[in-house]
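writing this on my phone so excuse typos. first protein, seq and then structure
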Amino acid sequence: MGTTRIIFASAAALGMLATSALADDMTGMITRIDRLNGTISIQQTQKGTVGTSAGSAGALQEYKAKDAAMLDAVHAGDRVTYSATDSNGTGTLTKLQKQK
């Protein structure tokens, strides 16, 4: 019984960490926009971590836009700052701002 509680507590903690990681502002480059379906693909820019060079390409993620109008101000190739949440395994873009 005690082992089960530890496993569930660990799983809950990991889930909260994963969700909060998505909520932080991230940077990346837009690779594709599908305005008909309201989705956008962003190549995340890695931050300077051990073993990687600053600005190297990270994971390519596809997000559903919370509001389709947020996709009107950006184009493929634009560098952006963005925030996203994960709901039911689908990433949802909550903030999207073109970098200057």
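second protein below, same order as before
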Amino acid sequence: MSQLSVRMRTHGFLNRHFSGDSIDYRQIIALFIPLLIDQAFIVGLNLVNTAMISSSGMAAVSAVNMIDSLNIFLINVFVAVSTGGTVVVAQYKGSGNDLMVSKAASGTISSVSLLALCISLFMIVLYNPILSVLFGSASPDVLANGKIYLLGSCMSFVGIAIVEAVCGALRGIGKTRASLALSLIMNLSYVLLNVVFINVLDMGVLGMTIAVNVSRYAGAVCALIYLVRVDDDLRVQLRDMLYFNLAMLKKILFIGLPFAAEQMFFNGGKILTQIFIVSLGTNALATNAICSSLANVFQIPANALALTIVTVVGQCMGRRNVEDARKFTKSFIWLSSCSFIVMGLILMPLFEPMVGLFHPPAEIVDDIFVVILINTLAQIPLWSIAFMTPSALRAAGDSKFTSLTSMLSMWLCRVVLGYILGIVFNLGIVGVWLAMDIEWGVRGIVFLWRFRGNKWVQHRLID
């Protein structure tokens, strides 16, 4: 009797907060679980990769983290455009227009792939002056490893762009299991190849570079084969991806370009912050790298929810069901905050074995603990309003406001305050991370204000 009562209460709670006319809680769970597994694998595998490269020394760890900050800046530009595709696909799916769903998917893949190719060629041609300007004060061994990793990473951009575009289109129609499978193929092969090239063949950063190219292009081939030969919903053909539908491209870029600009400014701010950290020395770079890897573990469920809400709110707005969009956004924000409490209670007691994976010098372990503790506490009230809310606003077509707010908060709060706290007040890496947590709060307040109004629901993205 008690089990039946618990089940009925759970069913009632889920119906009340996660079901509506547009979608019910069973569909949301079916969307969320594959994305949760995907995020867990991506973060876990990146953690393993960072731990593996640490066997090549702190210079290798610092170089990989240093270049990854630049990689994230570049990759997120075309990932942002693929997110625009996800929103358009989701809204057409919600409106029941299957023909336009197919056209939106094709447009996403062609535009994202071309953008990635342009970025890749630009970086390969100008890699040397860019590295000198951004990270010229790094030690020679860190810089040498960084050059190898940057060139290799840029060569792989088209591969990961294709995978991201296909997965974005699949998430838009709710096929998160298929996007999970493609992501796992790419990321698991990356880790297995890293084991071979780094641990067995002892090739260090060069081995990681070879692994990232092979895994990303293997993932791209699998994504295209799945889309053309296996998938029955998107109905995309290879010739469709070679044709640029300007009307569709405008819809995708309406969401994608402001988000891409946001990602450029947002991650540009991170790179500038990274320059502060470079000036603090190799140990500070290693501390930042390890803290970033560990912080990503705490954010696994929340990041999966942020991806899920794009599809959920997108489909609600495709049906013009504003009431559902508002209700689901509130529910996702609360659920995301609760996930940080759970992750903190599980992971903080495991701090020592987790940080031990990276073999850090003893003198930086205390700094790592302080940063992770502060960040864990700050995430509970701040992260969800700072990142979950704009995901919902963007899915409704409110891309310009969300992007402008994110850019301004990053540069006015995180960058400036990071320099003041980290360098001027001599708080070092702790000050840089404190500035980040404060910036979450500032942007979160602005996004909540926007969400409480009506302007974000007045956009008409699709006909």
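DSSP finds 17 helices and no strands in the chain. thats all i got for now
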